[in-house]
Structures are given as structure tokens and as C-alpha cells.
Amino acid sequence: MCYPGLHALTLHRLAHFIWCHRLRLPARMLSHANRFLTGVEIHPGAKIGRRFFLDHGMGVVIGETAEIGDDVLMYQGVVLGGTSLEKKKRHPTIGNNVVIGAAAILLGPITVGKGARVGANSVVVKSVPPEATVVGVPGRIVEDKRLPVIDLEHGRLPDPVNEAIGLVLEKQDKLEKRISQLEELLRADSISSESKSRSQIIQKGSNGQG
Predict the structure, then answer these.
(1) Which residues contact 91 (CB under 8 A, 6 or more apart)?
(2) Is the pTM higher than 0.90?
């Protein structure tokens, strides 16, 4: 009873019903009131499936031609935005069992496949295949696997930047070890050469005295 996401969705269902009956102004006014009361902006034309869960909800924006499937989990600050003012499909289509992390931005008429996960603060401008994990700016696929059930642990998503830095540091460590080994070999070779030179000088001196 105290979840703004539940209130926002309930009011949207009513606004969408009115919108579908071509009462556009009352639908938009109800949508605007919904935004004022809950902090969630959902265009009355947006299509939302069953068991949609909007956690916290503040700052969420869902555009007119956006379509959301069943069992979708969406966190605060998510934007399903458009990239055009033309009267056509211009907002994302979200498949079933999708998780979208906080402050993620999805732009344009892209499709997010069934069971996909979008990391927090990601910016997605290309379609995402089913069961894939997308993170970063712009969004990149970092994991592509089959999951039997919806995975709510969006905080455990891979970090490709951190992985890349780790690889660079590992490579640097290997190079430093090789350089140290080469320096030791050169030092040993130099000492050996000096010893030989001294031995030759001493030997020549001994031969001269003899």
C-alpha cells in the first residue's frame, strides 16, 4: 500500500484505458497528476504487461510508444525515451523477465530480449538479445547466457572496465618481471666479461714477467 510504483501503475492502467477510448486530454491530465503524486512519468499510450514491478520509481520516464512485457523489474530513474518526434514507434520494447537497473537510459525503437539485464547507469541505444547482460556507456554486452529464472541481483553485474584494468595491470606485472630478469642476465654477463678481461690481463702480465 505504500509503494509509489504500485500507485503509479494503478493510475497508469486507468489513464491507458481512457487513452484507448480516445479521451486524450483527460488521459494526459491523469498522467500528469500521476507524475505529481508519485514522481513517475508514464505516458498514457505506453503498453505495460502483467506483474510489472517498479521499485521506488522516482524519476522513471516511460514514453508513449514504449511496450513492456510481463514480469519486468525496473528500478528508479530509468528512462525509456525516444529519439524522434515523428508519430511512429520511437520508444523501446522490453521483453518478459527483464531487469533494468537504476538510472539506466534506453533510447529509440530498440528491443530488449526476454530475460536480459541492463546494468545501472547504462545507456542503451542498440537492441539487446535475449538472456544478455548489458552495461556501460554506450551499453555493451558483457555476458550472454541462459538463465532459468529472473535474476534480481543486478548489483552483481560484470564490470568490463575493471576487468580491462586488471588485465593491463597483470600484463604490466609480467613485463616488469621479464625486465628484471633481463637486467640480472645483463649484469651477470657484464660481471663475467669483466672477470674474463681481468684474467686475460693478469695472464698476459704473468707471461711477460716469465
Answers:
(1) 46, 62, 63, 64, 65, 66, 67, 80, 81, 82, 108, 109
(2) no
